[in-house]
TrEMBL record:
SUPFAM superfamilies, sorted: (Trans)glycosidases (SSF51445)
Gene name for this UniProt entry: xynB_3
Native source organism of the sequence: Ruminiclostridium hungatei
Domain of life: Bacteria
Domain GH10 stretches: 1-327
GO biological process: xylan catabolic process
Family: Belongs to the glycosyl hydrolase 10 (cellulase F) family.
Catalytic function, reaction form: Endohydrolysis of (1->4)-beta-D-xylosidic linkages in xylans
Identification of the protein by name: Beta-xylanase
InterPro entries associated with the record: GH (IPR017853), GH10 (IPR044846), GH10_dom (IPR001000)
A molecular function GO annotation: endo-1,4-beta-xylanase activity
Key word Transferase present: no
The enzyme's E.C. designation: 3.2.1.8
Length: 327
């Protein structure tokens, strides 16, 4: 019997995957065999859940939540307050911009309704996603509709509403490029200031959209140590290891063997590091299940094939899988 990923990591942390209502069917064998936590890749975001003020669509999210329940898996909620995949109606009032009061009322109602619907089935929520600007210079917070409508305290309100809505779920601040020395300091300062004001943040989600070159291991280590110094839990929430640097538009028909080898080495080293910090991590989630099911074949370049995960296009275990399970 080949190794089962989640069994191998039973003493370390739950191993999860981002799924869709389609992939829980097409990749069921891999999911049930190797993963113990699920995240809805898109089906629990405002754009799908709450397309207009008085309409909620829980059907797709429920398919994923039901699958997690039936297969005794954890479920991470992703995400409540974000600058992307969030309908414009949240920020409009007739022909003008919604007031701060109206925007906060809608945020509260969204969070209460969505978290209320999944209460008892979600172990954690990415309450706020990607609030920090990537630019080294300028304001710490990225320009975002919630920032424009509410002001800089939109993040604090989101977490307070979330705690009121579901006191059992762990509440995460989630972001990418989270190991960049400049951005990690800004994430740290944001969460530190929230905690100092008694805002209920339970953890930091390090998305982990990495590649075979960067971030270097010492940058990952420094970010882990920096965030851990806040005394909150950590999760890798969207792990994939691209074969390309972010803005490299190179394309291949088939994954070059030497890059797959580099990727396997990289996965091995990264999981060695994560195991070293197992006391800090409460979950490691991959952003997809197998290479035939990755958003990176469509981002940042449309229809440019990528092979960032542990299982290949035919759902076979890659060298990366072996390198993180043989230790
Ligand atoms: O790695 C990035 C680079 C630029 C923008 C966003 C990201 C990551 N952003 C993530 C990726 C995919 C979405 O499905 C997730 O909800 C989002 O959190």
């Amino acid at each position: 019997m080949s190794k089962r990923l989640s069994e191998t990591y039973r003493e370390y942390f739950p191993i999860g995957a981002a799924v869709t209502p389609v992939s829980i069917d097409t990749h069921k064998e891999l999911l049930v065999g190797h993963f113990s936590s699920l995240t809805a890749e898109n089906q629990m975001k405002p754009g799908i859940l709450h397309p207009s003020e008085h309409i909620y669509n829980f059907e797709q999210g429920d398919v994923i939540a039901d699958f997690a329940l039936q297969n005794h898996m954890l479920l991470r909620g992703h995400t409540l307050v974000w600058h992307n995949q969030t309908p414009e109606w949240f920020f409009k009032d007739g022909g003008k911009a919604a007031s701060r009061t109206l925007a906060l009322k809608r945020m509260k109602e969204h969070i209460y309704t969505v978290m209320g619907h999944y209460k008892g089935r979600t172990c954690a929520w990415d309450v706020v996603n990607e609030a920090i600007a990537d630019q080294a210079e300028g304001p710490a917070l990225r320009q975002a509709p919630w920032l424009t409508a509410v002001g800089g305290d939109y993040i604090e309100h989101a977490f307070r509403y979330a705690r009121e809505a579901d006191s059992t779920a762990k509440l995460f601040y989630n972001d990418y490029n989270e190991c960049d020395p400049v951005k990690s300091k800004k994430i740290y300062e944001l969460v530190k200031s929230l905690l100092e004001r008694g805002v209920p943040v339970d953890g930091i989600g390090m998305q982990g959209h990495w590649n075979i070159y960067v971030p270097e291991l010492d940058k990952i280590r420094r970010a882990i140590e920096l965030y851990a110094s806040l005394g909150i839990s950590l999760q890798i929430t969207e792990l994939d290891i691209s074969l390309f640097r972010f803005d490299d538009g190179t394309a291949y028909e088939k994954a070059p063997a030497e890059l797959i080898e580099l990727q396997a080495e990289r996965y091995g080293r990264i999981f060695e590091l994560l195991r070293e910090y197992k006391a800090l991590f409460t979950g490691i989630t991959f952003w997809g299940i197998a290479d035939d099911d990755t958003w990176l074949s469509y981002f940042p370049f449309r229809d440019r094939k990528n092979w960032p995960l542990l299982f290949d296009d035919q759902h076979r275990q890659k060298k990366s899988f072996e390198n993180i399970t043989n230790f």
